[in-house]
Amino acid sequence: MLRVMSRRGDDRLTWDDQKIQAGDPEAMAAIHEAERIFAQEKARGATAFRVEGGKTVERLDKFDATAEQIVMVPRVVGG
Amino acid sequence: MSAISLVISMLCWGIIALALTPVIWLLLMPYMKGWSRAERRATDLLHEMLTPEQLRQLLWHGYLEIPSSTEPQRIYRVPRSKGYVQVLENGHAIMRLCLQPVEFLPDADVVVLHKLMIEANEEVYLQKANKYLCHD
User: Fold this and answer.
1) The whole model's pTM is what?
2) What is the domain count for chain A?
């Protein structure tokens, strides 16, 4: 799942790993869309984190379709 | 006579109610904010990211404490709503940090943002934040 924080709360995009492995076109389209959003948000300065239950949070520089959950936060500045 | 006084009394109460409505609205507005769709979604994310104990701390104390992964005696105290993040060492406030997203985010998302940044890369978090030293 890809979650992108915004003023609307967070926008979510999910995909099914099993369907991707089976080559399901809808699942493939979802993963391509997630990849596109990831790249777009990164270009805007967002930071991505891999968040998985019971594991340490990790910063993510490249899109990883195998991640259980990716949370993207907008660019931050010192106030 | 009693009918006239009843009407006057009702009119008076009506006027009082009308006068009080904006005041009541102003008082309730901060709480109403929590009912918005964005706040609800952000609260859902917060509930998924925090343990029940951390949620309790946020609710009752108004802040979330995140232990440093590099300095065992250091704790980051993230407020529930917008404000400075306090840095405590051995229980004493040593610094206040100001770091904010460039775009508006619901309060609950801001808490998650701080948590993720501190836990994933504390060094970068500290580099980005503006620091205000605390003097006792």
Assistant:
1) 0.81
2) 1
CA distance A31 to chain B (A): 21
**Cβ–Cβ below 8 Å for B45 and A47:** no
ipTM of the complex: 0.91
Contact A76 B98 (CB under 8 A): no
pLDDT digits (tens, 9 = 90+) for B17-26: 888 887 787 7
Q: In whole angstroms, what is the distance from residue A30 CA to residue A69 CA?
A: 14
Q: Which domain holds residue A37?
A: 2-73
Which tokens hold the place of B11? Answer: 């009119």
State the pLDDT confidence band at B64, using cuts at 50, 70 and 90.
Answer: very high
**Band (B34; pLDDT cuts 50, 70, 90):** low
Among candidates B42, B45, B119 on the partner chain, residue whose Cβ is nearest the Cβ of A57 = B119
For chain B, give every domain's residue range: 1-35, 36-133
Query: Are the Cβ atoms of B116 and A73 closer than 8 angstroms?
Result: yes
Chain B residues 67-126 with CB within 8 Å of chain A: 98-106, 109, 112-113, 115-117, 119-121
Whether A71 sits inside 8 A of B104 (CB atoms) is: no
Within-domain flag for A46: yes
Average pLDDT for B55-80? 95
| Rounded Cα–Cα distance for residues A76 and A70 (Å) | 18
In a domain, A63, yes or no: yes
